[in-house]
Amino acid sequence: xxxxxxxxxxxxxxDTRLQIMLGSWGKGFFFDWFTRFPTRLGGISQDAxxxxxxxxxxxxxxxxxxxxxxxxxxxxPLHELAGCAEDCLKEAGRGKFATVKMSRLQRTLFMLQxxxxxxKLLYKEIRRLERAAKRKNLVPAVRINGTSDIYWENKxxxxxxxxxxxxxxxxxxxxxxxxxxxxxxxxxxSGVPEYQKVVRKxxxxxxxMAVVFDKKENIPKTFMGKRVVSGDESDLRFKDPANSxxxxxxxGSAVNxxxxxxVRPNGTSN
Length: 270
Fold this sequence. Notes:
Elements: H1 14-21, E1 42-44, H2 48-55, E2 58-63, H3 79-82, H4 98-113, H5 115-136, E3 139-143, H6 152-155, H7 158-162, E4 167-172, E5 183-188, H8 196-204, E6 209-213, E7 222-223, E8 226-230, E9 244-249
Parallel strand pairs: 2-3, 3-4, 4-5, 5-6, 6-9, 8-9
Antiparallel strand pairs: 1-2, 7-8
Helix pairs in contact: 4-5
C-alpha cells in the first residue's frame, strides 16, 4: 500500500512542497518523512557550546524548528522588524544541509498540526534528558527555541510546572513576555533603526541582551551602558550576570551583514 502524507503542506512555498513531493514520484526521499511522526525532537549536548556547558555542570537539550516563515507559519514574530532573517542561526553548522532543513520542517509541522502527540514526545525527550543528566551527575537544561521564538509560556504553560526542576531558557526578540521562574529569556539585540523602540523596551525591562559583533577582537567592555560578558564560552545564558550584554560574534553569512543586525567596531550597526 502506498504511503500517504499525514501533514498539510498547503502553506509551504512551491519549491519546498515540490522537493517533498518528488519522493512520491520516486525521485527523492523526503516524502517518506512526511508520512510519519518524528521519533526524536532534539539532541543532547550536540554542539560545541552545549558540550562546554557540561564542564559547568549542565546537560542541555535543544529543539530546532523551522525559522521565521519557513513552515508557512511565522514562528519568529519580529524577525522582519529586527532584520535578522537572512543571517539567522538556522544556516549555522549543519543547518544549511537539506536533510537538516527537512528534519526541522517535519518536526515543526508535527508540533503545529499534532499538538497532543508533540507534547507526549517532548515530555518523553525531557525525561530522557533527566535520566542522562542523573547518570552524569549533571543538571538538566532545555532550550526549546533553538531557531524559533515561540511563546511557550502561552502555548504550553503546563510544561514549566510539570518539570519544575528543569531550567528552561531561550533567546527572544520580544521583550514584554511574562515567563515562569524556571524559564530564562535573553533579549536578542539588533541595531536596525525600526527595531530600536523594541530595544528600549528591553532595556526598561532589565533584560540581559545578546549582541552580535562583527569580529571577536572588536567586542567592547561595555555596550549601551551595560557590562559585556562572553557568550561564546557556553550556551548557558541563565548563568550570565544580571543586567549584562552577552557578546556573540558574527559567523557565516552574518559576517557581511550591513542592515544593522551586526554591530561594528565604533558601536554602530553599519
